[in-house]
Design brief:
The chain has 282 residues and is α+β, with helices and mostly antiparallel strands. It has two domains: 59-166, Chitinase A, domain 3 (Roll), CATH 3.10.50.40; 170-273, Roll (Chitinase A, domain 3). The protein is 24% helix and 18% strand. The protein has seven helices and eight strands, in the order E-H-H-H-E-H-E-E-E-H-H-E-H-E-E. The protein has helices spanning 83-98, 103-110, 114-117, 136-143, 194-209, 214-221, 243-251, and strands spanning 59-67, 122-127, 154-156, 159-166, 170-178, 232-237, 261-263, 266-273. The strands form two sheets. The protein has a four-stranded antiparallel sheet, with helices on both faces. The protein starts with 58 loop residues before the first strand and ends in a 9-residue tail after the last strand.
């Protein structure tokens, strides 16, 4: 019988924000007249150099904070700040991250890019040759820095942005998607309720846990384009899945099957596969 793993539903846990100490330094004690003043420390307090690009610089993961201005591409009508105000705000937000705040937290609270903001600023993991044109302005600055480092604030069509390069982490999964009426991208033919979809997902899980082949059950019941591949989604980096799916997928051990995981598309059963493993059946 396969191993099972608990369902890690909901949004990703928010990173902690490290607060700096704002206390004034204590007054220096007076040096007694009979003693020489203490020598200044000889070690220089130099700023740590940011890490350089990794040896294998062919792929990158990124989190972004974006500040739009009135009239920028895709900017909603609610954005009224000027271009100069947008740049000043972006620089201020970058300074907060440099000062110790987690970029993911700043992105959730402040970024004007709603899709990536909901994922803590994550825009995905891409090979350099597949870098998305939408974020083309970030490509060169991002690939020029190391993991954990920030790019400068750059100007893009949609606003001023800065990004943090994150470590490339991938997970190979296959899944079964059960949609319900009203879920995102559910066709008119989908009439089952949310409760019925959850019940069906649990039934499919019982069949797989009882020994039926995951790929065959996926081909028969999954309601997305991966069904013909037995549900195989390949090896995908962070930032491209819906947050509840991504959290559950990375939490699974290889070979484990998740409990039903709900995203905006419906309910998923997720199985984690070994990295690099090809789908057994075409």
């Amino acid at each position: 019988m396969r191993r099972t793993a608990p369902f890690f539903a909901g949004l990703l846990a928010l990173p902690l924000v490290l607060a700096g100490c704002d206390d004034e330094p204590a007054a220096e004690p007076e040096t007694p007249a009979t003693q020489e003043p203490a020598e200044e420390p000889t070690a220089e307090a130099e700023a740590t150099e940011p890490p350089g690009p990794p040896e294998d610089n062919s792929e990158a993961c990124a989190r972004m904070v974006m500040v739009a201005w009135q009239g920028a591409a895709h900017a909603p009508e609610t954005i009224t700040r000027s271009k100069e105000e947008a740049r000043e705000r972006a620089e201020a937000l970058r300074a907060r991250v440099e000062g110790g705040e987690a970029l993911a937290e700043v992105a959730r609270e402040e970024s004007d890019a709603p899709s990536s903001a909901a994922r803590g600023g994550a825009i995905g993991t891409f090979a350099r040759e597949d870098w998305p044109a939408l974020h083309g302005a970030l490509e060169e600055p991002l690939f020029a820095v190391g993991v954990g480092a920030l790019t400068p604030v750059i100007e893009a069509d949609y606003g001023y942005a800065f990004a943090e390069r994150c470590a490339v982490e991938k997970v190979h999964t296959r899944h079964i998607l059960v949609r319900y009426a009203g879920a995102k991208n559910a066709g008119e033919e989908i009439e089952r309720t949310q409760e019925e979809a959850l019940a069906l997902t649990r039934q499919l899980r019982e069949r797989i846990d009882g020994g039926e082949d995951f790929a065959e059950v996926a081909r028969e019941h999954s309601e997305d384009g991966s069904a013909e591949r037995g549900g195989d989604l390949g090896s995908v980096g962070r930032g491209l899945f819906q947050p509840p799916f991504e959290e559950a997928a990375f939490a699974l051990e290889v070979g484990a099957l998740s409990e039903p995981v709900e995203t905006v598309y419906g309910f998923h059963l997720i199985e984690r596969l070994p990295d690099g493993e090809e789908d057994a059946a075409e």
